[in-house]
Each structure stands twice: as C-alpha cells, then as structure tokens.
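Appendix C. Worked example: glycine dehydrogenase (aminomethyl-transferring)
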Amino acid sequence: MNAPNKSGWKPEMTLAEDGMHSGPATTTGNRALMLEEPLLFEIGRADVTGVDLPAVDANAPTRLGGLARSEAIGLVGLTEPETVRHYTRLSRQNYGIDLGFFPLGSCTMKHNPRLNEKVARLPGFADIHPLAPQNSVQGALEVVAQLGEWLCKLTGMPGVAMSPKAGAHGELCGILAIRAAHEARGDAREVVLVPESAHGTNPATAAFANYRVEDIPATPEGRVDVAALKARLGPDVAAVMITNPNTCGLFEKDFREIADAVHAAGGYVYCDGANFNAIVGKVRPGDLGVDAMHINLHKTFSTPHGGGGPGSGPVVFSEALAPFAPLPFVRQDAEGTFYLVEEENREERGPSFGRMTAFHGQMGMFTRALTYMLSHGADGLKQVAEDAVLNANYILRSMEDILHAPFAASGPCMHEALFGDKDFTGGLSTLDVAKGLIDEGYHPMTVYFPLVVHGAMLVEPTETESKAAIDQFITAFRAVVERALAGDEELKQAPYYAPRRRLDETQAARKPVLSWQKPDD
Ligand SMILES: *Cc1c(COP(=O)(O)O)cnc(C)c1O
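Step 2, the predicted output written as structure tokens:
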C-alpha cells in the first residue's frame, strides 16, 4: 500500500483504461508487485522523523546569537521504513545492466564481473583515505602504478595520467597537455579539428580549452575525409581529435596517414579512446601516431557506470606530450617503495601543466579495472575485442535486410552496428522504435547519434552477451522495426507499459521542473 496521499496525486494510468491491459484497474495504481511511488513531498509529513529526539526546552539558553530558525525548515518527514521503501521502490523502476541487455552504442555497457566488486571492497582498498601516509597505502599505490603500466602496454604509449575522472575529463587533460606543449615552444595555435561524427564531448572539450573548433567532413563510407583534413592543416591547427574506432562503428584505416600529416604540420593527434573495447589487445594506438588518448575504464574495463557515475578516464601520452602530463603520478624508488610525485619536478619529468583533480583518481574504479585485466590476461583481453566485434556484426547482418544500414557496404563493423530510419513510413521515426523497445523490455540503443546518419540507431551488444540473449533482442528489435516500416500508428504512443508512458522530452530538456511546487489546496 502507498502512504496516504494528501496532494491529490493520482497514478497516471489505470489498468483498464489504456485498452492494452486485460486486468481491472487497481485502487492503488500498483500493478502486482510493481509499486507506484509518489514524490517524497507528497507522502512526507512535517511532524514525522525517523529518530526519537528528546523534547527541546524552549527556554534553555542558546549559543546561536539570535540566528535560531524562526520558522519550520520545510522538509518532510518519514519513518525509517517509509524512507527505505521510497528509495527501494524508485530503484526498482530503474533499469541497469544487471536487469537486462543494454545495447547503448558508444557506451560499452558490459557486464561487471562480481570478482571486481569483491576485490574493490577489500578494506585495504575501500577504507583508505587520499591523505593517508604513503607508507600505509603501498598496496593501493601499487594498484595505481600497475594499472597505469597495463594501460601503457596495451596502447603502446610511454606516459599515463591516472587522475582524470571520466572520458570527457580525460579529453580535457589531453588537450591541456597539447596546449602546454605548444605554449612551451611559444607556438600560439588556435584551432582544433574535429570530424563531424565526433561525440559531443570532443568539440566541447576543445572549446572549453579555448580553442576554435572546426568540423572535418566524413566520406560517404563513414570515415574521416582525409583529403579535406589535409587541406585544412596549417600553422594555426593545434590538434585533431579523432575517435578510433569511430562513432559510425568503423575503424579509421587511414589513421597513420592522418597522424603523419598532422605531425608534419606541427600539430598533435588526440584520439578519443572511448571505443577501445573493439581493438583492445589487437591494435596499439601508439603505433598509429597518437599523442594522447583517454581510456574510459568504465567502458572498456567493465567498471560499472551510468546514472552519472562514477567514471574514470586515464590518459596515455606519447613521448612528446608525457612531460606535460598532470600531477600527481606514482613512482617506485630503488628499494621498491611506491611514492606519489605531488609537485612539479622538471628534472624528473618536465613542466607538468598542473592538476586535474585534488587527489589521485577513482580508486574503486582502478581496483575493478586491474582485477578485470588480471583475470582476463593479455589473451583474454584480445578475445574481448574479437567477441565484441563478432557480436556487433551478428546484429548488423541480422538486421540489414529490413533496416537501413548506411555503412554496411563498407565491410564489417567494429564494436557497434549503425542503422538509420530512412525506410520508416507513416511519420514513424527512430524515437518510436526506441519507445517500442522499452515495451519489449529492452533499454533502447543510442538514438540520433552520430549526427551524420538520419535517425541514427547505434547498437553495441558488447562481448558479454550470449548468442541466446542477442537472438532474443534481434527478435524483439525486428518486430518493432517491422511495425515502424508498416507505419503502425500504435507505436507512436509507446511505451504502454512503462510507469510514466511517453514523456515530453523536449519540454523536459528545455523547461525541467527541478523543484517540487506545492499544489494549490
Ligand atoms: C562515452 C564517450 C565519451 C565521454 O566519456 P565520459 O566518460 O562519458 O565522459 C567521449 N567520446 C565517446 C566516443 C564516448 O563514447
């Protein structure tokens, strides 16, 4: 049962009215054990708390100097069990990788092995403080150092910064190192080139670091237009930012040629490594001429993500940029003791551009990622890439007969399959397919990204899904796509079974209601 409902809040849908359910309406709005849940403000009472406090003597002297609150604070109260239930019910309306397939392209929503969790929870890792004396956290420092070493080996790059806290943060770290390297030479360059298929964080990062961003077009095959890029290179170009494999799910075959041209023009090559899952153990970005690349530990190395955190985005650096990497970094002395270099030391490394964060990075993500690497081994990581690519191609080839696949003729895809809504009829679009998939029990794929494909649907199964799970998804995906091809009007109202039906996403983005307004009584 729900708590008493004072504000007139009603469940949005009663079961019989929508014409889609056969059962009778319930008085609570609950559907069996799927429980409706009002807002805290709608169920809370001002006079309730979860703890018993002694009564306050109103005449007792205070030391607040006249600053005592004169009116109620306006927070609502719940008992402890009500509080626990409120948040648990909300959590059950959420969807995560532990509930089902999560084909969100470019996000690499892979299974997080439970072994990772076990190791991350060891008290020696979980209960330490960033300011603990370094001799008391030698094991943790060794984890940071070892993980950094794995990242350097896997990418073929000599330097690494462990502190960036997500992919976008890593991009900023890389671009700031590039800016520092140019400035150290007294070379004031102003432009960063970004392909038009890039993730939005790439141009945002360059702009945030005070560069002017210019687009590089894509070829009809979905890759960077090398001729256009070369034509634009010049003494004002500080760097290019290229994602490889790119966001169309394709390997940039001419990356080495691009990198050589950029270097010849005095620029640096930033590689967005968010899609490293497709090539880990197979390709070393250092061999392709990359100067800086972030690695999303929360994507490739399976640490859990979504819902805003936590992430971790270490950056690997070439010989040219390594001296400018941010502080701090871990070193080991001749006796084998690990220590943090916290201050700039030009003799040891060079003119670091400064710091990205107060401390050292995401310890919990580091332990999970290293556990993942050690349990897979080098051969296992290579198989990760192979299986991720195989799974994506299986989906591409299982759908291309009914769904527009703009780059299917360019050959096999990498870790994700890209489709468009070109052939849908009756005004139906990608959004309707995404909503239809929710009714089928699937988190939708990434939609409307990359921008170079009309109504893009970017599907990334990752290597952790079984063939049976992928076959089930393909069956559901095909069924929904067939409805879109046939112009099925009902699909425009989907989802029918989600707790809140179809939301007005434009309104939610433009005019979000971020605080609760007391309804007029
Ligand atoms: C995820 C992603 C990013 C950003 O990474 P965050 O960890 O979300 O900041 C950048 N580029 C690409 C291609 C991505 O997929």
